[in-house]
Amino acid sequence: MPHIQFQNDLPGILGPMNFSPHTAAPMNALANALLQTDEGLSRGERELIATYVSSQNDCFFCQTIHGAVASEYLGDEDWSFVKAVKCDYEQTNLSPKMKALLAIAGSVQKGGKNVTSEQVEAAQNEGATDREIHDTVLIAAAFCMFNRYVDGLATIAPQNPEVYRARAAKVVEKGYSAEGKYTSEKIIS
Amino acid sequence: MPHISLPEGLPGIRSLAAYRPDTGAALYALAEALLRGDSSFSQADAELIATFTSSLNQCTFCTCSHAAAARFLFESNQDVVDAVIADYQTAPISDKMKALLTIAKCVQEDARTVSEEIVANARLLGATDREIHDTVLIAATFCMFNRYVDGLATVTPTDVADYIPMGERMGTLGYVPPKPQ
Predict the structure, then answer these.
(1) Model confidence over B31-42: pLDDT tens digits?
(2) CATH class of the domain whose range is B12-172
(3) A19, part of any domain
(4) Is this prediction's pTM over 0.90?
């Protein structure tokens, strides 16, 4: 049960976002600016970073929805690839650049000072640009916020994977918003 | 030295907002909404929670700049800021604020440790749903800002005096993003 009354029964982050629309607006603007672009890192790669950090923070809701969105972008229909990345990305066929960026994201998750010059150089040696390193750090940092918002208020996370699959399709189509419901039906709005 | 090439002459978060203005605009809008907007807290109390979380994350830039803003806003009562940084349990703040800072501390460590008991305790001391929400979101947001600022090793002024005008600006003009460079 959530720690406070959201005045709605929406799942996950939509509960507090609809409780507090004036803070939700810039949070969604941030999510869209960071995740809804292919400049440098692709949308799928960005969602993978978000998913990995959310799994390191053990946030069920965020890792499931962003994992579903990543899978949607990456053609990972049975979610096995995203699961493998969360479990041990070193053993996957991700590019050396993405592995180096995930290492940076993992350090950010523990605390910003954990990112070392060596990690940054390793990513640069694999071809990562300043912009890609910047976006990796900010995605990882932002999910340390989103995850804490979701879990710190004990929001409700749907258990049915189809709910996330349907929402992911909508995110891919329309981007992030505090509007709409999580439902296993295709949402028409 | 920053991990990536950032605009020169700007410290901390300002260098990052100038580097990528679109995310910078969203981040500054969030800080403005959360710390100065339609919040349940006075601006001084909101800055106190931001300072407290940043000090737990050992982010020097965010701690010093938000502490400077909080000192400016608390005016003659500004010693409370350093007392909270040193030990909030013995600081001269209300029991309700202590209970809310305990929630902020749990959010900073691991949000799953925010228990029904500590929330019930805050409520018993008069905290509203809105205040509990704002506490969790301020703490969560600074777990982002702190990681962003330190994760890219941004320029951090070492002289406390450098933060005084920053705090005054944050306390009066609020969160206005730097001009893109």
Answers:
(1) 999 999 878 899
(2) mainly alpha
(3) yes
(4) yes
